[in-house]
């Protein structure tokens, strides 16, 4: 595997090739344990899926194998006519991140709301703080339905060739190594075992 990585990095034509070609070459030539991943993410909600998409689209990580563990089953999703009351308010930084991974276009083509001015009051006094200005062209935040944001991230995740999604994978236990040369060990409730170099725990119920 190390020789394959060196070949890809040192060969101009391969280095200039698309990320999908690089991933295909590295995957097909790898003889490593298929249950070992460079990065594992426990929790496939909005945060976990967006993180997996962000890492998977990072060209510098295109030769890394990434595993996304989702405890729920894979479900088809279509935009409902009525708005869902489960929404999230995202700041401009998160909006930029979703733009960078091309996920915002799916939200922009459907529906969202912008917040120009935000005022917060203290619970025990008349003190308050105000963010933004109604006349400003800049937004304080964006209101997006949870399911729509998740669907947008999942749609872009399809274009990443180095991310594997495991649905119905409830983490039963994990073991952190005592020494840096050891791997993180992950066990699921259905008996499957995986290992990784780096573990992100997004949902605490997953461990």
Automatic annotation (TrEMBL):
Q: What is this protein called?
A: Ubiquinone biosynthesis monooxygenase COQ6
Gene Ontology terms, cellular component aspect? mitochondrion
Write down the superkingdom of origin: Eukaryota
Q: What InterPro entries does the entry give?
A: FAD/NAD-bd_sf (IPR036188), UbiH/COQ6_monooxygenase (IPR051205)
């Amino acid at each position: 595997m190390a020789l394959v990585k060196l070949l890809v990095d040192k060969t101009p034509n391969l280095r200039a090739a698309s990320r999908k070609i690089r991933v295909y070459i590295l995957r097909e030539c790898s003889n490593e344990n298929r249950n070992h991943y460079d990065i594992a993410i426990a929790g496939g909600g909005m945060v976990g899926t967006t993180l997996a998409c962000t890492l998977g689209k990072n060209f510098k990580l295109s030769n890394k194998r990434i595993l996304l563990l989702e405890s729920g089953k894979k479900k088809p999703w279509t935009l409902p006519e009525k708005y869902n009351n489960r929404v999230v308010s995202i700041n401009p930084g998160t909006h930029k991140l979703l733009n960078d991974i091309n996920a915002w276009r799916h939200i922009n083509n459907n529906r969202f709301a912008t917040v120009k001015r935000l005022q917060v009051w203290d619970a025990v006094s008349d003190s308050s703080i105000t963010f933004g200005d109604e006349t400003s062209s800049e937004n304080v935040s964006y209101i997006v339905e949870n399911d729509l944001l998740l669907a947008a991230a999942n749609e872009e995740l399809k274009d990443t060739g180095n991310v594997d999604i495991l649905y119905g994978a409830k983490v039963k236990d994990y073991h952190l190594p005592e020494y840096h040369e050891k791997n993180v060990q992950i066990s699921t409730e259905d008996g499957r075992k995986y290992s990784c170099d780096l573990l992100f725990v997004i949902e605490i119920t997953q461990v």
